[in-house]
Design brief:
The protein is built from 12 helices and 9 strands. It is α/β, with parallel strands linked by helices and about 325 residues long. Strands 7-6-5-8-9 form a 5-stranded parallel sheet. Strand 3, helix 4 and strand 4 form a beta-alpha-beta unit. Helix 3 packs across helix 4, helix 5 packs across helix 6 and helix 5 packs across helix 12. The chain is globular and about 55 Å long. The structure holds phosphoric acid mono(formamide)ester and norvaline (NVA). The site of norvaline has 9 residues, from helix 6.
Length: about 325
């Protein structure tokens, strides 16, 4: 069976290990599953660009719950569902599923009676785990305080499209040790590329997540964590940064700026990386803060490809997890 073929037969595809599965973080996948997911996304993206418009999920529906603001994730998931033929219901703000104090269990068990997948952006990873524990439909993490796996998929697909390889490159992540940093740790564990993370003191990635990823990486000699941006950036193939204050910690913004100033990605920082280095940022960016306009709009920047790929990877992800078991 051709994994790249998106038609009605796809729904009953034997050997689709993701059917019915949750994606709460990238380490929910094996390395093989991650590679197959990415190659399927690449093939489905190419098919879409060549005009394929089959909608195999016309009898399916997805609920997209946003407990934090979103532009890319909300719009790309809604349109990914539409492109599959599935009906997306988006719940945000006051309408958000959990805003009236109903229990997580009741909410999850009601939603599973209506929809074929639950996409949830929230604060604590534990809430996603609780929803997944109750709902008998796939649950997808659309960002939590700990992880952003869908962003991680798009970031990897974008790197592959530009470098034509996924294993032998160095990625420098410079900035806050946040959900995006944690997701790159998981990617490095699953794929084996060289990851150098540099954060200010006090803003390192969560120690238990680092430990988990190093174990998953078979020791983690490909992963280095320091406070030295120059060392991280040296000879990097890909440079990544993210906001200095994530959603939920905006009130720390003013106090963080001083600590993060030396970690800004500007032209001088990019000059430490390879001359051909790519620049990634999940967006939204704070131009002039964690990254300058020159880098955002520079020759290595792939930020809009990265944003576009959110749609493609999530369409593939939905098509695989909603497939018949
Ligand atoms: N990168 C990302 O998740 O963007 P949004 O917060 O706009 O969804
Ligand atoms: N680290 C950021 C990512 C936004 C897509 C946040 O959590 O706000």
């Amino acid at each position: 069976m051709n994994w790249s073929k998106l038609d009605t037969a796809y729904k009953s595809l034997k050997g689709n290990p993701l059917a019915g599965r949750d994606l709460l973080c990238l380490l929910d996948l094996s390395s093989d599953e991650l590679h197959r997911l990415l190659s399927t996304a690449l093939a489905q993206k190419q098919a879409w660009k060549q005009g394929e418009r089959t909608k195999p999920y016309g009898d399916s529906s997805v609920v997209i719950i946003m407990e934090k603001p979103s532009l890319r994730t909300r719009v790309s998931f809604e349109h990914a569902a539409k492109r599959l033929g599935a009906w997306p219901t988006v719940l945000t703000g006051k309408d958000s599923a959990f805003s009236r104090g109903e229990s997580v269990k009741d909410t999850a068990m009601v939603l599973e009676r209506y929809v074929d997948a639950i996409v949830l952006r929230t604060y604590e990873q534990e809430k996603l785990e609780e929803v997944a524990g109750h709902a008998n439909v796939p649950v997808i993490n659309a960002l939590s305080d700990s992880y952003h796996p869908c962003q991680g998929l798009a970031d990897l697909l974008t790197i592959y499209e530009h470098l034509r390889r996924l294993d032998t490159f160095k990625l420098a992540y410079v900035g806050d040790g946040n959900n995006i940093a944690h997701t790159f740790l998981e990617s490095a564990a699953l794929i084996g590329f060289e990851l150098a993370i540099a954060t200010p003191a006090g803003y390192e990635p969560d120690a238990s997540i680092v430990k988990k990823c190093k174990v998953a990486a078979g020791g983690g000699t490909n992963i280095r964590i320091s406070h030295d941006p120059a060392e991280a950036l040296s000879d990097a193939d890909v440079v990544v940064t993210d906001t200095w204050a994530s959603m939920g910690s905006e009130d720390e913004h003013a106090t963080r700026i001083k600590a993060f100033e030396p970690y800004r990605i500007d032209t001088a920082a990019m000059a430490l990386a390879k001359p051909t280095a790519l620049f990634e940022h999940c967006l939204p960016a704070h131009r002039g803060e964690e990254v300058t306009d020159e880098v955002m709009d520079g020759p290595g920047s792939v930020i809009y490809d990265e944003a576009e790929n959110r749609l493609h990877v999530q369409k593939t992800l939905l098509s695989l997890v909603m497939a018949e078991r």
